[in-house]
Amino acid sequence: MTPGARANQSGRILETNVEAILTAYEYFQIGTHVTKEYLLNASLLKKRYAKQVYIGNGVYQTSLKVDFYVVGLPLNPSELIIECKWQESGGSVDEKFPYLNLNIQQYYPAPTIVVIGGEGMREGAIQWLRQQVNFNHNLLAVHTLDRFIAWANKTFGVA
To answer: Which among 32, 89, 96, 103 counts the fewest CB atoms within 10 Å?
Structure first.
């Protein structure tokens, strides 16, 4: 398996874990590669999500898709975007954090949590992204998978 294929597989494993958490809290997947409007209009299911949701154009005026778009949270607002970023060894994922942060700040239509995993990201990059929570009104948190589980237990478990 090539390093790129291994990285993609590892990223999918992180996404699968996030999806398992959503499913455990009775969120239903309504699609993959759908538009935000499609997800929002599927109102027969109160607690729902879609994967790889098209949300519009971003910083470079190119299409933006988010990993998960969740609707029906027991919070206000009741929508949430979840982005998953995995890097097992040295690479470019953490170099893309400023681009991700700017898109979240200026173009994402809902509050966002970034779930990070792997041991290959530069520690300074993770710290930088976490600090952006203080400046980016749309970036709620940057969590490792275990911290995301703890957050989900408190947030999704609210009746």
So the answer is: 32
